[in-house]
Design goal:
aminotransferase, 7-stranded mixed β-sheet, single chain, disordered N terminus, 5 domains, PyrdxlP-dep_Trfase, Aspartate Aminotransferase, domain 2, alpha/beta, Prn/Lys/Arg_de-COase_C_sf, 44% helix, transaminase activity
């Protein structure tokens, strides 16, 4: 390193820079090497190499030897060798060729290399491609012995092994934590005793976090403590412990349950190697998919009602053979309506579907998981129907997906609608404040109706990315009603399980934390302390202001989570999973089966079931890295749009400071890209704030460019081949996922730049009139926006048994009132009769659901009294798609006469005796 170079040591606690940032660091090293090799200053190269060396310790490739070779070439002043080796490593990382090609591990560019000590044995010797992973080894052995230790591990590799792994060695708890966070390739962790606490590198933010965890001195660096920390961060990893002490006592310690297996000393290194491979195999196995592949290769004679099975009707046809050529033979060979011969039944799984669902439960942190093959709409309806009976009250976000509303109709349950905070400027709602939810529960209690409130039904995260503090919501609600059931619709949030940042905000993540808290003796003390502070009969006002602690002895934890697996994992469309963590499930299991029988197809698609199985395998083995990449891509898009001078003139992506009002960001967190933001203050926000913003969901404002959301979505799709999902009046939703690459980012940014350039040129060349027209258009989209209508109330005819303080209603009766053609009427939206009746009566009562897209939630539900604000909103809507509304016919309303009949007491039928047969 030159004397003038003064590199700043790289911080190892900046975890929002993922795989893409690592690739950029290597490309920067290559660029610096090129400059040096051409006779330029080598200081930049030395600084880049020193910076890179810190975090590369936590990766298997390029490894200790290749990094040493880079440093040796630099020390020798050999710019050409430095450039050649840095370029080869960078290319191997970009293509991931190092996973299969032994030559990539050599310091010399000679095929498989002539430096045996650098070549991991058996690389390239096996003809079949073997999945590659890395194993973290935490040890107290001095760093000088690490190369020899790694060589010993490589000697254990055998050609018959189904997988191949490379050791990554660290010597402290902090470094083990950092490696776990930074290296998505880690598949297993071996923890020896005798390691230290502190990292050799600068990590002040990291140390502030370890201090809050009670990790203050070297005595805290215990193997068991590290195992618990890693399991909390990466629950999918297999952990193994090697102890020189009383392993029998350690194995019997309940806290050691996070460890897959404990070994004494190093007496059985081969057994440990085989255990590691077995653990990976356990996650790799896909019971249904594996059996389906075997089934497809068997000579089957099909005499059941599925003509395309085996594909003969396809491939022998002159007319539809192109279908077979498009999809390939395996699709048809794997088709069957049978549930025998190695397959299983979705309705009553006892074989490989059952095993696949058990593996999914493990992956998602649930007690049990149900596969659903017709979307999360069905998952939601199944859960609502199974858990609610006629007359039960459910507190429901009025803006939730329509499947929840229809589920209430099917179950005969009475929704008590609660409102989310409005974001009127962007024609969208956020999420429901906890105070609103608590008020609903307390009002029900004051009315003597709390026993009838069975469920809280919320969307997490919302379409626009608002994430609840799920643990706080459940704990505070359980403090009021200890047996309340929670249904969290996490259709868009399934990936969050595999992010250590977002996992705590999922239903299952929070449920597991609450369960652990309940078993902590400190929980009872915390409850008793608050109980003494509040007194025997605290007022509702005091309860609303207090962060309530439930009585852990009274809690009946009942949590359900639905995920659209196809929305965030590699499942075929309509693939969904329903996760359960319910201590009372045995009491509802039979009715849950009945709900499955009601909604599930008796002929589910085999390929769809297999994709659910496969998506679980992928997320358990590489989901951590895929989700980290999706988050990194989202942050790159946010940065590129908001910091580009041209783009930011006409477009912007809304930050957390805009999407989440300040009163719900108690930590003071503003945005992921705000100056000074790191993972420590982001974690503080995730732990404390009432609502957070999912970083992968980006609200791109296009109204400032003169486009409404629907128009801009069409331009992106029709002219640039870019697909987005949701729109609002003046924005579109851009979502990153595990499928996206940085090439996708480049394409999006280039397109936005092109559109912004066109707007810019049009204004510059169009003169004053063009500018006035543009400003008027922007004003209409960004300022003259309609107020969002709140839910009003159910008509008294649908509130026969309602309380005085709550606003639930019999939505089922309202829904079926629409079936009475004579009892309904239609009035066009702009008919003066609407305005007359709003002023003088009789009331306008909706006969059906009315759901505009956007915003995509019901602004009217059956039995709801229609108010002026709802009519004003409808009249200002300029969207083409409104479910439940026919512009030619007008609003469908329940006639006043029919309402009067509905409101009368129902006559009791006199039972008739059957005639004797």
């Amino acid at each position: 390193m030159s004397k003038d170079a003064k590199p700043t040591q790289k911080r190892i606690d900046q975890f929002f820079s993922g795989p893409g940032a690592r690739a950029d660091d290597w490309r920067d090293l290559v660029d610096a090497a090129k400059t040096w090799a051409r006779g330029g200053d080598r200081a930049k190269y030395d600084a880049a190499l020193a910076d890179l060396s810190v975090t590369e310790e936590f990766h298997g490739y390029p490894g200790l030897q290749l990094m040493a070779a880079l440093r040796e070439a630099a020390a020798a002043g050999d710019g050409a060798t430095s450039l050649a080796l840095a370029t080869r490593i960078t290319q191997a990382l970009a293509t991931r060729s190092f996973r299969q090609h032994a030559g990539d591990w050599s310091a010399k560019d000679e095929g498989n290399g002539d430096v045996p000590e650098l070549v991991p044995p058996t690389f390239g010797a096996h003809t079949t491609r073997r999945p590659y992973f890395e194993t973290l080894i935490v040890t107290g052995v001095s760093p000088g012995q690490w190369p020899a230790l790694a060589a010993e591990w490589r000697k254990l590799r055998r050609p018959v092994d189904a997988f191949i792994y490379e050791p990554v060695i660290v010597g402290s708890l902090e470094d083990a934590f950092c490696a776990t966070m930074l290296n998505p390739n880690i598949g297993a962790v071996i923890i020896n005793e005798g390691f230290g606490l502190r990292s050799r590198h600068n990590a002040p933010v990291l140390r502030s976090i370890t201090a809050t965890a009670g990790l203050n001195d070297e005595s805290d660096a215990s193997a068991l403590r590290l195992a618990q920390i890693i399991k909390r961060v990466r629950p999918e990893l297999d952990l193994y412990m090697i102890s020189n002490r009383d392993v029998e006592e350690l194995a019997g310690n309940p806290e050691a349950s996070v460890v897959r297996r404990i070994f004494y000393s190093v007496e059985e290194l081969l057994e440990l190697h085989l255990s590691i491979l077995e653990g990976i195999q356990d996650r790799y196995d896909t019971p249904f998919f594996d059996n389906l592949k075997k089934y497809a290769q068997r000579p089957i004679g099909t005499f059941h009602a599925l003509p395309i099975a085996r594909g003969k009707s396809i491939f022998k046809s002159d007319w539809i053979r192109d279908m077979g050529e498009f999809y390939g033979p395996n699709l048809f060979l794997a088709e069957s309506s049978a549930t025998t011969g190695g397959l299983d039944s979705m309705l009553e799984p006892t074989g490989n579907i059952k095993k696949a669902q058990e593996k999914a439960a493990r992956a998602l942190g649930a007690d049990r998981v149900f596969f659903v093959t017709n979307g999360t709409s069905t998952s939601n309806k199944m859960a609502v129907q199974a858990l609610l009976a006629p007359g039960d009250i459910a507190i429901v976000d009025r803006n939730c997906h329509k499947s929840h509303h229809y589920g209430m109709v099917l179950a005969g349950a009475q929704p008590l609608y609660v409102e989310a905070f409005p974001m009127t400027e962007y024609s969208m709602y956020g999420a429901v404040p906890l105070k609103t939810i608590k008020q609903a529960l307390l009002s029900a209690r004051a009315d003597g109706r709390l026993e009838r409130v069975k469920m809280l039904d919320l969307t997490n995260c919302t379409f626009d990315g608002h994430i609840y503090n799920t643990r706080r919501v459940m704990e505070e609600c359980l403090a009021i009603k200890p047996d309340l059931i929670f249904l969290w619709d996490e259709a868009w949030f399934g990936f969050a399980r595999f992010s250590p940042f977002l996992r705590r905000r999922t239903a299952m993540g929070a449920a597991n934390e609450i369960e652990a808290w309940m078993h902590d003796p400190k929980s009872v003390a915390a409850y008793e302390k608050q109980r003494a502070e509040l007194g025997k009969s605290p007022s509702d006002e005091a309860l609303l202001k207090t962060r309530l602690i439930p009585d852990p002895r009274q809690i009946r934890l009942r949590v359900y989570q639905t995920n659209s697996t196809h929305k965030s994992m590699s499942a075929i469309r309509q693939g969904s999973m329903l996760s359960v963590k319910d201590v009372e499930f045995h009491t509802v299991e039979q009715q849950f089966k009945e709900a499955v029988f009601t909604h599930a197809s008796t002929s589910p698609n085999q390929q769809l079931i297999a994709s659910l199985d496969i998506s679980r395998r992928q997320m358990e083995l590489e989901g951590y890295g895929l989700v980290a990449n999706a988050m990194e891509i989202a942050l790159a898009i946010r940065h590129a749009v908001n910091n580009n001078p041209l783009l930011s003139k006409y477009f912007r992506i809304l930050g957390a400071d805009v999407m989440v009002p300040a009163q719900y960001r108690q930590s003071g967190f503003t945005d992921y890209l705000a100056p000074g933001v790191n993972w420590a203050n982001t974690l503080k926000s995730l732990d404390e704030d009432e609502f957070c913003l999912d970083p992968t969901r980006m609200t791109l404002v296009c109204g400032t460019a003169g486009y409404d959301g629907t128009q801009f979505k069409g331009i992106l799709a029709n002219e640039y081949n870019i697909q987005v999902n949701k729109t609002s009046r003046n924005s579109v939703l851009v979502q990153s996922n595990i499928n996206n690459t940085r090439s996708d980012v480049a394409h999006l940014i280039r397109v936005l730049a092109e559109i912004a350039g066109e707007v810019d040129r049009g204004l510059a060349q169009g003169g004053a009139n063009a500018k006035k027209t543009f400003e008027a258009r922007v004003k209409s989209l960004m300022t003259d926006v309609p107020d969002l209508p709140n839910f009003s109330h159910f008509h008294p005819s649908f509130r026969g048994d309602a309380g005085t303080k709550t606003n639930e209603g019999d939505i089922r009766s309202g829904f079926y009132a629409a079936y009475d053609v004579v009892g309904c009427e239609h009035i066009r939206l702009n008919d003066p009769e609407i305005d007359r009746r709003l002023k003088a009566g009789p009331e306008l009562v909706s006969a059906n659901f009315v759901i505009p897209y956007p915003p995509g939630f019901p602004i009217m539900v059956p039995g709801q009294v229609i108010t002026q604000e709802t009519i004003d909103f409808m009249r200002k809507l300029d969207v083409k798609e409104i479910h439940g509304y026919d512009a030619k016919e007008g609003l469908k309303l329940v006639r006043t006469e029919a309402l009067a009949k509905l409101g009368r007491p129902k006559p009791t039928a006199t039972p008739k005796l059957k005639a004797a047969s």
